[in-house]
Amino acid sequence: MARFAALFDLAGRGAPYDHTAASLATASVEGVPSVRVVLVRGVHERGFVFFTNYDSQKGIELAANPVASLCFYWPWIDEQVRASGPVERIDAAESDAYFAARPRGSQVGAWASRQSAPLGSRAELEERWREVERRFEGRPVPRPPNWGGYRLSPTHVEFWKAGEFRLHDRWLYTRTDDGWSVVNLYP
């Protein structure tokens, strides 16, 4: 995770795009995969933290099948990192703290959106947003009970560095009882 943190920091320096963006792959109980981009808002020894609506497709899939994979790709430094492992909800206090730091409009949006549910029209969503804004007018917006964070605790982390003639460098870290083991992989 220290290696990842250093690379994450490097990718963020002068980044032309949001370096916190990562593809998150989940799967249904039947094993049907789905992938989408999330913003990873916390990186530390225990894992990678992202936030979402618990009632969204990813939230439903994580409740039924609590394992996932993340893939960061930073073409401006020719690096990619993949991580996989079990996923669990973070505690409410951590979710509350992150929610409180979000822009007010995003806080209101978390209440207004029925993420992943069918939407009749954009006007319907905008009216829901205005209703929520009126409901919380003049006071802080609390975190919705169906919104919060997840932590992916990696059991495997693979680093990939682009190489000339497609002779890429790859290192696979696997969590062990004593820390991490590492092996180099063919490209």
What is the CA-based Rg, rounded?
19 Å
The proportion of strand residues reads: 35-45%
Poorly predicted ranges: none
Main sheet summary: 10 strands, antiparallel
CATH class: Mainly Beta
Number of domains as seen in the coordinates: 1
**N-to-C order of helices and strands:** HEEEEHEEHHHEEEE
Share of helix among residues?
25-40%
Total E-strand runs: 10
Which structural class do the helices and strands define?
A: alpha+beta
Looking at the structure, what is the overall shape? Answer: elongated
The CATH architecture can be named as Roll
CATH superfamily: Electron Transport, Fmn-binding Protein, Chain A
CATH topology: Pnp Oxidase, Chain A
With helices defined by DSSP (H or I, 4 residues minimum), what is the helix count? 5
| Average pLDDT for all residues | 96
First and last CA, distance: 22 Å
